[in-house]
Amino acid sequence: MEKDQAAQGALYALGAYFLWGIAPIYFKQLTAVPAFEILTHRVIWSFLLLLALISALGYWPRVRALLREPRQLLMLLLSSVTIGLNWLVFIWAVNNDHMLDASLGYYINPLFNIVLAMLFLGERFRPMQWLAVGLAGLGVVIQILVFGSLPWVALVLALSFGCYGLIRKKVPVDPFTGLMLETLVLLPAAALYLWGFADTATSHLGDNPLSLNLWLISAGIVTTAPLLLFAGAARRLRLSTLGFFQYLGPSLMFLLAVLLYDEPFTRDKVITFALIWTALVIYTLDGLRQRRRNVLQNSGGPEPLK
């Protein structure tokens, strides 16, 4: 039974990160729509879909319980701002041919999480983690100093998603309830902008072709489908195991950018990616070594060689 659960969890994780990895294909269908306008659709249709899911799953008692917790609501207010920023920059990057930078940001994210854990959760770096973070930092510094280009898309995506994960770690709420309330926080601004201020060629749904409106409405599914799969995977897999699937998303983005959308893989990006990939190999091997050490210690086995 446990093996079946693990196998299901692995399939769910593959599905979640695969969908996140190919999400740029969806957003490329909306290049005629401004990034902020796409964001408003993502918020509105995600909220409505999550509202239906909350009702279908019978999660309203959880919502009411959360509404009685001011501190947790404040944390979700902060997380809604960080995830909104992350969505906006990602959409802009994809539709302005900066998908390689978006991929780099999600490669950096696990290493950035180490820094956040040290600063805010009191965790200590292991020597190999220091080396991995140092190599990633070196890649960014070289790109800035030697090539004169600041990878701001990558840094904003890594920073915003890392902060989002840190905040959500401190709020004990299931993904659907949490995301529904986060989109609810963003909903007034999104609706006010789309139906009150936006005046672009695509902002009036009644003037759009049906095909474009269907693409825009699908933003809700694009947001929630991988979340459903990820939640299923998280219930069935250890967090350490789940972490090894996280490189699938940025790897697919990288391949799409280079092979399908012909983004230039320039020398500055070659060097930066090479250092980041080396850092991730070190980070992953260190995680496997630490996991083996913990298993041996918990089972009463011999202390592994140092």
UniProtKB/TrEMBL annotation:
It is found in: Cell membrane. Keywords: Cell membrane, Membrane, Transmembrane, Transmembrane helix, Transport. This is EamA family transporter RarD. The keyword Transmembrane helix applies. The gene is rarD. Belongs to the EamA transporter family. The chain crosses the membrane at residues 9-27, 39-61, 73-92, 104-121, 128-146, 152-167, 179-198, 210-230, 242-261, 267-285. Residues 9-142, 153-283 form the EamA domain. It comes from Zobellella endophytica. Its main location: membrane.
